[in-house]
Fold this sequence. Notes:
There is one protein chain. The protein is mainly α. Helices cover 57% and strands 2% of the residues. It is globular. It starts with a helix and ends with a helix. Keywords: Coiled coil, Hydrolase, Magnesium, Metal-binding.
Amino acid sequence: MTSFRDRVRGVVISTALGDAMGAPIEKLTYGEIKSKYGRVESLITRWHKMDLHADARLGRVRGDGIVTDDTLMTIALMNVYLTEGRHLDAYDMGNEFVKEIAFRKTFVPELNQETFIIDRLFYPEKYIFMRHVLANCDPREGGIGNMVNCGAAMYIAPIGIVNAGHPKAAYDEAILFAMGHQSSYGLEAAGVLAACVAKAFELGVTVDDIVDTAISLAKDGTKAAIHELTEAARKLRQERDDMDKVINVFQSIMMKYSPMGDDVSRHIDKVGIPSHHYTPSRLWSIEELPMALAFMVLNEGEYYRSILDGVNSGRDTDSIGVMIGVILGAMYGSEVIHKEDIEQLNKVNRLDLCTIADRFSEVAAKIIEDDLRINEARLSMISS
């Protein structure tokens, strides 16, 4: 039986693996990836922007296992739990989490230097600093007005870990915490992904069990997108080698719930032109989570194939890889991950992922034990 500690390792290492697998091809379309790379199947992949001048790539480097903000923010959230030793809410977003991303330096691999995580963050993640530090907002209202995206969901897996085996509690805590960062379907995705990770810790759990949990808790467009995409994935299992067909079906369905399609970049010609991109809606969903669950269903939980299909599907490739990785990593533990991949991730990112995971698993186990003691006391109260 895979231990709790090893499952936590599976989540943490899979965050970095999915992130680093998708990072070199992020924002490319499925067709562009197929044309430029054929199929990405290794961490040792050259970033599609590496030949550009450093200014054009904002001084960043990627490829060969380098992780992005998905991994750095996941570790930052784990550090908040290490500091607080308890469940979190939006006030912790506005306090310790802000300190982690904006006031405490760490090695940022893309910039190849010790600096603040915020120096690397995308605008909707920098919004955390603006709202909580500069605008002094009510922490529970921190996500209001932000660009709606997958930014909270991409690092929310630790909340699933501290609520392992209790998906509804994971959903609730993720919503309470991430409302300090996101709103609408961006917030919803964070809650659902945390619930999926919590469910994945249950013994004997299947991918179908995890999808059922996601659908039971998800609301509005997120619920509909997950249901429709995973149903399509089941029907496509016999044709999963025909990736052109799979991607066409998946992305055609997602167009109902995410109107951007391949139009994911901002440029001067779009300034001042209204669109539905990244705006709140009860009818829409982020793309990454439903796609991640669909690739897991398509491949019946096969670890590497699910991640690789996800990152090769295009667009937000690293976050799709992360979301597949954290769920399947919780299911299987770290033994499913190739040792050479772990070594490469640690080397290029100056990390010790097993040590990071083990330190967090101790805190998570204590939080779970505290919950169980409280529940035992409540049971005694009503039975006396």
